[in-house]
Amino acid sequence: MRRTTLSRLVRFGLHIYGIWPYVPLTVVFRLYWIIALSTAQVFQYRYVVMNIHMDDFSEYMDGVSSAMTSSLLYIKLIILWIYQRIFYDLLEMMSADWQDSTSNRCSSRVMTDGANLARRTSRWIVGMQIGSASFYSVGVLAANANSPETLEPYARELILKMELPFNISTDFIYTTVQSVQFYHLFLVACGITIINSLLVTLIIHVCGQIDILRESLTNVSKCSADSMDEFTLRSLIIKHQRIIIFAENIEILFTYIAFMMLLSDTIIICCLGFIIVSSLNTPNAAAILVKTLIYYISMNVEAFIYCFCGEHLSAKSKMIGSAAYNSLWYDFPAKESRTILFLIVRSQKRLTITSGRILDLSLERFTSVVKASLSYISVLLAMY
């Protein structure tokens, strides 16, 4: 059995997107993504700038949302590349935690259950995003098939809204462009899900370590004062410090990613919601809903994942203080009881993930994102 919290799918994705630190091919993968994403972004934002006054505003919003989604992936990759040392430290700590769990059956069970949960969650996240990209592409093709006026290649809709430097004058050029765009969209969707799955995996791992610490505190409370020794308490303090450092490294790695995610997802959700609402009374409503609805759901799920991870980590960190307080610390010798009290005091400062070190990620934050996007949708509907 592979003793690691990261699934094979996530590990493979981290290598492909140049996130896995200190691997010879990492530079090659990073160079590829810089070239591919930069080229696509130039054509996407060229479309956004040149068509700002176009008549079909919902189509323009579609171009804005797809361009911002690719930009968000680009920003995530750059941040993770910059903080590769932090990520390497997290991998080393995860490996050490697995080695320490071999001597304890309870710890091994908790970490194995966490690894299985992380693998199932990663498959679900990746599958949903790939399904979103597939439905988005199918919706574009269905819209082209249902529009008689788009028989000519230059009049057909592309999967990704781009202002290309050449004319699509033949079916061969159109098919080639569509194939390249589908390949690019598929990789962008996979990249977004790999990074989201990485965050979920790290949160599951650190929460598993919190559960192990709580179990150790419960076992300590069952010990008599005579059987309590300084080594046992020292191991608990070291365990708590490792959890704090692990959570702080997650915060460093994802705080600015979360900040950009909340900003961009609010705008993207607003754009997609406007497209869905404004298309309900149009002839090609079915094709637009196929293209947009799953995309809209997946972007909401991404915001929910980040906010839920922050909420879950905060709730778990509070349980450390409760477990320490419920132990029989008052029956221990004075030196040992003071050590438990220090642990309780430190646990009052809860662990969390912030958005740009400004706002804590929580379920309340997610509701704020949804309400803000709905407010913007109502404004756009009133204007157009």
How do the strands and helices of this protein lay out in sequence?
Layout: H1 8-16, H2 26-50, H3 57-82, H4 84-101, H5 105-145, H6 171-221, H7 230-278, H8 285-326, H9 334-347, E1 354-355, E2 359-360, H10 363-383
Antiparallel strand pairs: 1-2
Mind explaining what this structure looks like?
By secondary structure, the protein is mainly alpha-helical. Helix content is 77%, strand content 1%. It contains ten helices and two strands, in the order αααααααααββα. The protein has helices at residues 8-16, 26-50, 57-82, 84-101, 105-145, 171-221, 230-278, 285-326, 334-347, 363-383, and strands spanning 354-355, 359-360. It has a two-stranded antiparallel ribbon. A hairpin with a 3-residue loop joins strand 1 and strand 2 (359-360). Helix 3 packs across helix 6. The longest helix is centred in the middle third of the chain and has 51 residues, at 171-221. It is elongated, with a radius of gyration of 25 Å.
